[in-house]
Every structure is written in C-alpha cells, then in structure tokens.
Design a protein that fits this description.
This protein has a domain of about 80 residues. About 85% of the residues lie in helices and about 0% in strands. It contains 3 helices and no strands. The radius of gyration is 34 Å and the shape is elongated.
Length: about 110
C-alpha cells in the first residue's frame, strides 16, 4: 500500500493545523485559553479526588439504607402474613431434605 495523494493531503492539512494552533497559542488570547483550561482541569481533578474519598462512605450508607428497607419489608410481611415464615421453612425444609436424599442415593463415579 503506497502513499497516495489523499495521504499526502491529509498529512499537509494536519501539519498546517498544528502550525496554526501553535501560533494561536502564542498569542495573549491563546495563553488565556490555556490558563482557563488548566484551571478547569485542576477543578475537575479536585472534584474527582473528593468523590473518590467519599465513595466508600456513600456505598456504606447505601448498603445500610438498603438493609433498613429490607428489614422493614420483612417486618411488614411478618405482620401481614404471620404464618408465611413457618410455611416457607416447612416448604424449603422439605425441598432441602428431598435434594439431600437425591444426592446421597446416587454415588459419584470415579473418573
């Protein structure tokens, strides 16, 4: 794959844009733009660092809040359906016994 006129034109346009940008950045307006960009970059950096410091506390609060909500939901269900817990324990206890019995009936074959 050789160099075509498209490649050459793209290279020349890129170089011209680089030279124009360099000349613009040497002006007072360009220097002001760079100072503004640096200030904004530092501001964003400090916001990101602050967010990173607060993240563990935020997720801990989120986890605790979820635990409270789950406990409230469980209490509400127990209040409205008092026999539901016993019924589920019996159901899952029966399922666990059936599963355990099925697993012990068929011994594993050596490989």
């Amino acid at each position: 794959m050789g160099v075509t006129s498209k490649h050459l034109a793209t290279f020349i346009l890129g170089a011209a844009a680089g030279v124009a940008l360099h000349k613009y950045m040497k002006t007072e307006e360009g220097e002001q733009l760079m100072e503004d960009l640096k200030a904004k970059g530092n501001e964003l950096k400090s916001e990101a660092e602050s967010a990173m410091e607060k993240a563990p506390e935020y997720f801990e609060d989120l986890k605790n809040g979820a635990s409270v909500k789950i406990n409230e939901a469980i209490a509400s269900l127990k209040e409205r359906f008092p026999d539901a817990e016993k019924m589920l324990q019996e159901l899952f206890g029966t399922l666990n016994k059936d599963t355990a019995a099925t697993n012990t009936d068929t011994p594993e074959k050596p490989v």
